[in-house]
Structures are given as structure tokens and as C-alpha cells.
Give the backbone structure.
Amino acid sequence: MKTILYIVQKEFLQIARDKFLRAAIIMVPIVQMLVLVYAATFEMKNIKIHFVDQDHSQASGELIHKFSASPFFVAVDPSEDVWTGEENLKEDRADVVCVIPSGFSEAIGTGNSTGIQLLINAINGTKAELSYVYCQAVIGDFSNRILAEKSMMAGMGGIETRPRHWYNPELNYKIFMAPGILVILVTIIGWMLTGMNLVKEKERGTLEQLNVTPIHKYQFIAGKLIPFLLIGLFDLTFGLGLARLLFNVPVEGSLVVLFTFATIYLVAILGIGLFISTISNTQQQVMFVSFFFVMIFVLMSGLFTPVDNMPEWGQKINIINPMAYFIRVIRMVLLKGSGFADIQRELIAISIFAVSTNALAIWRYRKTV
Amino acid sequence: MIVNCQNISKSYGGIQAVESVSFDVEEGNIFGFLGPDGSGKTTLFRILTTLLLPDNGSARIDGFDVVKDFRKVRNIIGYMPGRFSLYSDLSIEENLDFFATVFGTTLKENYHLIRDIYVQIEPFKKRLAGRLSGGMKQKLALSCALIHQPKLLVLDEPTTGVDAVSRKEFWDLLIGLKEKGITIIISTPYMDEAGMCDQVALMQKGKILSCDKPDEIIRKDGQQLYSLKAENIYQLLKDLRKYPETDTVFPFGQDLHYTSKEKDPDLEKLKSYLKERGHEKLVLAAITPGIEDVFMHLMEKENPLNEKL
């Protein structure tokens, strides 16, 4: 036990002396919170919409006005012909072209159904999807109002859906993204620092000197793990504080639950970092392998796209993606107020991870060359 | 006998780094391994220090097997790798403290052991190890290797790349440690250091060519050595190689060192042979061989007509 303490002490001394590391531990959370959360938002404003009004009626004017009044749309110069609209779409001057055909108002007046054509730039699929949903909302609203007017005249009722978004009533993307970014933050900090640390000892030859000492393997691995676990937890606390301060991210659940899970999660991640560095000989190798896996883990974690939208095999892969578990858990705990009982499955899974990655690291770490 | 090594072999992917090496080291001796780069010294040392498993053979240190009782071996040896391997971002003091604590001891407890060495670097104890000069680094590494009071010190080329004065100082320290009863195994590419050892093993291509006291190695070799000099050294070397009675000839500083196949060579015949080939200002003298001569001689016997100059 004492030996572990000495190694931990030595690590902290070295970290404290490393200007780059010191800066990274403080700056990474700040930059990630400030930049990534804003950048990774799905919220869309200022969708450029081009109207081709071929009807020139009061009804078409009302519809256009409805769009313009919405904070999501900015109308660009309209035209009479669809061709100009298409040209605008091509030149990126418009994101959406809305064609209102002649006879639009007449059809409404006579109670016939009519259509509107939407041309959407789908280079960016997500943006196209969102633009469409926003357009539909505006048009749907417009259509409902007409229906309501008509039904009032005819004395009929309609069905109106009034959605309420639980756990995030304002559909604020920031409070949804910030916890996810926190997971990326502690993952990268923990994984990279441990991975680089052990292999650095190999590169510098200090490991050779250490290996002739009577330090046990488990003491060595524990001595390497504990400092970075503490740093990871510190960064999580720091990042969470920032998230609360900047975006008012709610903390519905218990922090004990969150930090218990985070600790086990970090042990698992540090184990991966250590394992990679036991099988690598240079920092480049560690960087390359880590980059590869972190990329896959992040993209599949459900941070940007809901895991449920992935094909079945993708969801299966996520069984071995520790990040997916933590992202789910941190959102559940922070936004929904989940307790230990609710995250039982994730807790068991991540514990298995923690044990196996560290067992692997201890097993692969050779005191002989 | 503190070290007993029998038929140790180790190969790396088809290359035989150490081939059936056997030797014993008496307690309190300085045992030197001499040999060119790549002769297998470091591999052998790594096996002795439990960092590498031998393919064949066995080695015991103070009765403990380096494979089976590796943990006990690690407690009684101090190892100084060929390359500086202390923490360059820790200070002298911090390095010493760290290595003392992982061995379950303290700097204070074993201060007497390293005092002679440590006093030389103590004024800089707050300085980071990475900012020390080569000689100081060596002294720090030696202090760290000694901090747990090992019975055996294994030093892998500690004087390589160190200036002549520091080398001399370093050897003085080793002699001091020997007097304290610590056994030392040391490797070096410098032949002049062989004379300071109690026992010397000459290594080449993973094998021990000869192993004995330095004087004995020279005596056993038993060759009369001649030093030759002439205007054109290179031509002289080529001509000597062609001379039928030549056993070995190799450049040594400004001269050539020459041995003959004959027990009692006819020097006049040799001189006239060389004069015929137009060598001027020829100087020939019988000299006492040094360890380097023996080494070169043994090496040439192993690989006849070593063309490397």
C-alpha cells in the first residue's frame, strides 16, 4: 500500500512539474465547455428560405408572413419562377425553396386540399431534416388555423397535438449536449494521460530502472491509475461546475450516484489507456491507436445521434462502448434524476469493463523486456 | 561465490545474442566484461538483473535463481542501465528518495553507503536530474543503484561517453565500494579499464573468449608482441599481412602490433622482407602486450584476417 502511495506521489510531482499537463488539465474543460457545447448544438436559426409565390393572394401572403415571423427563418429575395429558386439553392443563397402554386388561395377558399412544394438542400442530412420539420411546423400551424376557421363556421372540432418535452421542457440543446461533452472530456483526459504516461517511461528508459525494483505489477498499475483517476474526477467536477454556470444544466439526481458511476467509468477508461501503452513502444503508437478507438467510441456513443436510430448491429457494438453507458447515465442522472436502481444495468456493465481492462493491463505489463 | 552463471543462451529472432556463457564471480570482486558493441554484454546483464529470460542455462545470484526467485534477486542487486534511466523531471533528492522508498528504505538509513558519491552531487540536490552533466548523472545513477544496500552492483557501460577525468573518478568510487564488500559486475568498451578489474571476461559475438585475472589473460596468451613503425603505415600493414609467418597484425595507435606464428621469429628476415618492399625508417621493438593486444589477438584468431581497419 505504501509503495502505491510513493508512486502516486512521484506521479503528482511529475505532473505538477509539467507545464503542458498543468495547462491541459485546466484548459481542456474550459475550451470544451465553451466551444464544443455551442458548436455541437442542433438548434437551427436563420434557415434561408426562398419563396416562389405564384398565387399572389392574401392566403399566400399570410403564409409567407408566418415564416418571416418565425425566428428560425430568414426570407431571401423572392421570385416568380422556380428556376431562380433552384439557382439560389445551388449557389447556397437559400436552404429551402418554398413554391406556392397558383390557385392556392382558391383551393383553400373552396375547401379543397392543395399542396406546397418544398425544395430542401440536403447536403447536410441533419440540417435538411430539421429544416423540413421546422417548415412543417409552420405550415401545419397555418393549415390548422384555416381548419379551425372553417370548422368554426361549420361547427366542427379538430384534434390538436400539444407536445410537452419532459426532462428538457424547452428542448434546450445545450443542457442535453453539455453532459455528453463532459463524458468526452473525462474520457480524453483520462485515456490520453495514462496512455502517454506509461509509454513515456518506456521511451525514456526509466521503466527499465523501475523494473529491477521489487515493485509488484498491481502496485505499479495502481500507482499509475490513481493520479489520473483523481485528475479525471477533478475535471468532471470542474466541467460540471462550468456547465451549471454557463448553461444552467440541471442536477436533478444525486451527485453521489453520478460520481460513483464516474469513478468506475474512469477506472475502466484508464485501464484501456494503460493497456494500450503496455502494448505500445512509442507515444506515436499510443496516439494512433487511441485516436482510432476514441473516434469510434464518440461517434457511436449516442452523443450526436440517438443510439436507437442506429442499425441493430450498431446498437450491438455499443454494448462494448463504455462511453455509450456513461453518456446515457450522466443524462439520466442530471436531467431525469435517476438513482442507483435506474442505472443498475449500466453500473454492472461498466464494472465488468473496469475489472477486465485493468486485468488486461496488469497481465500485459511485463517487468521483463 | 556470489554469481554463478551456467550456459546462458539468448537469441532474438535467429540472432544469437548470448551463446552458452558460463562464469563465476567471487564475492567482493570487480568483474569486468570487455567487448565491442553488440557482443552481448547488455543482453547478459539484463538476464542477470531479471529483466530478460534466458532461452537456456541458469544463473544464480547469492543462491537465488534469476528466473524462479526473481523477486529476491531484485532486492539484492543494484542495476545501472547503459542509458540514463532516472526521472529527468525529478531532482537529485527526489530521485533518490523515490528509489529508496520503493525498496522500503530511506536515504538517511543508507547514507553511509553512498556518502562518498553523494557528497559530490549534494550541493545540486535541488537540481532536476535532466539538467545535470554526464558525470553527475552517472554519480546520481550509481547512488540510486546503491540506495538499498545491494550485495551486487551491475553496471552496464557506466563510463561510455564520460570524459577521462570523470571516468577516473568513477573508478575510484568503484574501488571504494569494493572495499566496502560490494561485488561489482561492470561492462566497458574501454580496454584500459580492464586492469582495474579483479577478473575480466573478453566477449565477442555472444561468447566469452577468455575469462581470468587480467595478468593471467595476458600470460596465458603467451605471445611475444612486436611494435612496428614505418613511413607508410598502411602499406606496412598490407605487406605484413602477406608475410607468411604473420599470425596477427593490427593498428594500435600510431604503430602496428604484430605477432608471429613462429615461437622464435627471425626478425632480421622480417626486416629485410620489409626493406625489399621499400619501407623506410623502419622501427621494430619487442613490447609487453596489454589486454587490448590479447583481445585483438583472440578476435583475429576467431575471425582470421579481420579486414576491418
